[in-house]
Amino acid sequence: MQIRVLSKTDNELKFEIEEEGHTLCNLLEKILLEDETVDMAGYNISHPLISTPVIYIRTKGPRNPETALKDAAEKILQKEKEFKAEFTKALEDWERKAKADRS
Which backbone phi and psi does 88 adopt, to 5 degrees? Predict the structure, then answer.
């Protein structure tokens, strides 16, 4: 994954992420928009086969967009850990039930 900053001001950041698609961009946008200090967040993929997604973030007040982006990435990692733990538990429960049904 390569990230290239296209433009930056105190409250705005525009960058592209090579070799990514809607999966990461949509998740990132959703998490950014949950942040009350983020005024606007979105992305654009101009062509689904050959385009690199461009992500735009605009923050409110003194908060800079880099901090908002870092916080969003940390929240995504935390959600991944929670999902993994819940999935592992569900799979173990299913395996125990399947084993009991076979007995």
Answer: -60, -45
Residue with tokens 């039930």: 97
Q: Report the alpha-carbon distance of residue 33 to residue 103 in Å, rounded.
A: 50
pLDDT digits (tens, 9 = 90+) for 65-89: 999 999 999 999 999 999 999 999 9
State how far the alpha carbon of 48 is from the alpha carbons of 16, 25, 53, in Å.
Answer: 14, 13, 9
Q: CATH homologous superfamily of domain 3-102?
A: RNA polymerase, RBP11-like subunit (3.30.1360.10)
- What are the two backbone dihedrals, phi and then psi, of residue 47, each rounded to the nearest 5 degrees? -145, 125
Domain layout of the chain by residue ranges? 3-102
The dihedrals phi and psi of 21, each to the nearest 5 degrees, come to -140, -155
Q: Whole-prediction pTM value?
A: 0.84
Residues contacting 25, CB < 8 A, separation 6+? 17, 43, 45, 53, 55
